[in-house]
Design a protein that fits this description.
Layout lengths: L10 H10 L5 E3 L5 E4 L31 E8 L16 E7 L5 H11 L5 E6 L2 H16 L4 E6 L20 H13 L4 H14 L1 E8 L17 E4 L10 E4 L3 H15 L7 E8 L5 H17 L3 E8 L8 E9 L4 H6 L37 H16 L1 H11 L4 H9 L14 H4 L6 H14 L26 E5 L6 E5 L38 E4 L2 E4 L24
Parallel strand pairs: 3-4, 3-5, 5-6, 10-11
Antiparallel strand pairs: 1-2, 2-4, 7-8, 7-12, 8-9, 10-12, 13-14, 15-16
Length: 572
């Protein structure tokens, strides 16, 4: 597995140094992998508990004035957790260890000393053996030094209960909701006891269930965090690759969302009408579009279960390197917690948008204007031929997609199939449109654009040629030519031009972009091209001045054409 890594030993520090460049107000402790709010550093002097010493730290932050500090952390590899959530309204400091390795006791103690004032500090710890041991011991040492420190352990994973033979419920993405609610409460001026009580309450109500599709790989070694068959997925997998509860066949997203939601609600039964917050978290290798599909399904399922989803959050907030997978977290809300979730924060990683999102019904698609140009009469022979060609394209869908993978975006066959599936057309098509023309509203990509341009032109029957010189400000002069031709006015310029009957094109449209106009003639010098014979006498009147028209080729000459310039007044 290829990665952007210089050295596995310096990977975490270099990653944090890059984060500091993008997150306002973030700083690192010198020589440490500890991120802190730059204006909250108070270390360097006496802690100020009855010693009569200076209560101002080396950075100028007043220990007596700073609010309760929130400190979290753990092994790296879960970015943006935890350093990404350091900011006003969330964490005060985040202590990082190596990849999937808990930080040392001394590192946690350094973080406590750096940002803790007289109001004290709350350590928010995910329920893993290393984190609980090292953060717990650091808290005891800090208390011995005179700091007021409390600890809250988060174990929101419902795949493994505390009664299992495993290490017990693990801390997962729900930890970020504890960060947000406790951080907003601390920023409002609440004391340590109140912040601790609220954080423990939230941690006790959280429920998270995850699913993994593909493992991540360790920087440096390239080893996969776990192994799984291509057609299997694992329910309840931990964020370090720990074993889950069951390996099952892969299934559609809606079925997976139902599995996760059902297990969460079975572990935390809720009454009808209960207010909840929903968090759908990506594990690092899941595209946002796929997360959105899960969010849609989970939100709908919670509503069908009789719950009121007050807040919905989506994003990769607690990852596992580039593991492909997701987790669903449900938090039953108590009074005042929606306001704490909506409170502003300077953290760039928090997925909330600063408040509730108002849901709107789908907006109707505008109808075509009543004065649209007459599409003309359909040509049955051309339509039948193009229908047959389109069917041949659809029959060879997989092969066309494989060919497009070599030279393009690997969507050619699938896009044409999508355009022809029943119910996929976004609006009715005009009679002149062939089957390929009807693909225009639904089939995207370059192939859809070609169909939108070419097929309506191919199915259009040209008007009868005029043998009478037109009247108006721009008369046409026509001579004897060796090919059939007719005069066609341009609404954009009022000019008249002579066209080759062997290459029928739809009437010019006012304001048509240059890339949609019929192209110039190829200029082939072959005597076999019938249009060449009429070049000498074929002219176009431009403000009364005759100008030679470029040669036109027959449809089968195979020469490439050049686009008409935007100010040329249409095709010539």
């Amino acid at each position: 597995m290829k990665k952007f890594v210089n050295d596995a030993d310096t990977f975490v520090r270099e990653s944090l140094e890059g984060l500091v460049l993008t997150q306002p107000g973030l700083a690192l402790l010198e020589g440490r992998t500890i991120a802190v709010q730059a204006d909250r550093v108070v270390s360097g002097h006496d802690v100020g508990h009855g010693s009569g010493g200076d209560t101002r730290g080396s950075s100028g932050a007043d220990r007596e004035a700073v609010p309760v500090a929130l400190i979290s952390g753990g092994g790296a590899g879960h970015e943006p957790a935890h350093a990404g959530f350091v900011g006003e309204g969330m964490l005060t400091a985040a202590v990082s260890g190596g990849v999937f390795a808990s930080p040392s006791v001394d590192a946690v103690l350094d973080g406590i000393r750096a940002v803790t004032g007289s109001a004290g500090a709350l350590l928010i710890v995910k329920s893993y053996t290393g984190d609980r041991l090292n953060f717990g011991l650091a808290a005891q040492l800090a208390q011995d030094e005179g700091y007021a420190v409390e600890t809250v352990v988060v174990g929101d994973d419902i795949a493994l209960g505390d009664a299992d033979t495993h290490a017990g419920a693990r801390g997962l993405a729900g930890t970020v909701l504890v960060h947000k609610i406790a951080g907003a409460l601390a920023a409002s001026g609440a004391d340590l006891a109140e912040v601790t009580e609220r954080a423990r309450s939230v941690a006790g109500r959280l429920a998270t269930m995850g699913v993994a599709l593909r493992p991540g790989t360790m920087p440096g070694s390239g080893e996969a965090t776990f192994e799984i068959d291509e057609d299997r997925i694992e329910l309840g997998l931990g964020i370090h690759g720990e074993s889950g509860v069951e390996r099952v066949p892969h299934r559609p997203a809606d079925e997976l969302a139902a599995e996760l939601v059902d297990r969460v609600l079975a572990a935390r039964p809720l009454d009808d009408g209960a207010r909840v917050a929903l968090l759908v978290n990506g594990l690092g290798g899941t595209p946002p579009a796929e997360l959105s599909v899960l969010t849609r399904a989970a939100h709908r399922l919670l509503g069908q279960r009789g719950l009121r989803v007050e807040r919905t959050y989506q994003g990769s907030v607690m990852t596992s390197l580039e593991m492909a997978g997701a987790s669903v977290t449900v938090l039953p809300l108590e009074e005042g917690e929606t306001e704490l979730l909506d409170a502003p924060t300077s953290s760039l990683a928090w997925p909330g948008g600063g408040g509730p999102v108002e849901r709107h019904d789908d907006v109707p698609v505008p109808e075509a204007t009543a004065d649209a140009a007459d599409p003309g009469e359909p040509d049955p022979q051309v339509r039948a031929a193009v229908d047959a060609a389109c069917q041949a394209v659809l029959d060879d869908e997989s092969r066309l997609t494989e060919l497009d993978q070599v030279v393009g975006t690997a969507t050619w066959g699938r896009r044409w199939r999508a355009g022809r599936e029943p119910g996929r057309r976004t609006r009715p098509t005009a009679p002149r449109h062939t089957s390929c023309g009807s693909c225009r509203p639904a089939a995207g990509g370059p192939s859809g654009g070609r169909a939108a341009r070419c097929m309506p032109r191919a199915s259009w029957r040209p008007p009868r040629r005029s043998r009478t010189a037109p009247t108006g400000p721009a008369p046409s002069r026509r001579g004897s030519t060796g090919s059939r031709s007719w005069a066609v006015p341009s609404p954009a310029t009022g000019r008249w031009s002579t066209r080759c009957a062997l290459r029928p094109t739809p009437p010019p449209t006012a304001g048509r972009p240059s890339w949609l106009r019929p192209s110039r003639g190829c200029g082939a010098r072959s005597r076999a091209c019938p249009a060449r014979a009429g070049r000498a006498m074929s002219v176009r009147a431009v403000r009364g001045t005759p100008t030679p028209a470029p040669r036109r080729s027959s449809p089968g000459c195979g020469r490439s054409a050049r686009p008409v310039e935007p100010d040329s007044g249409g095709p010539r």
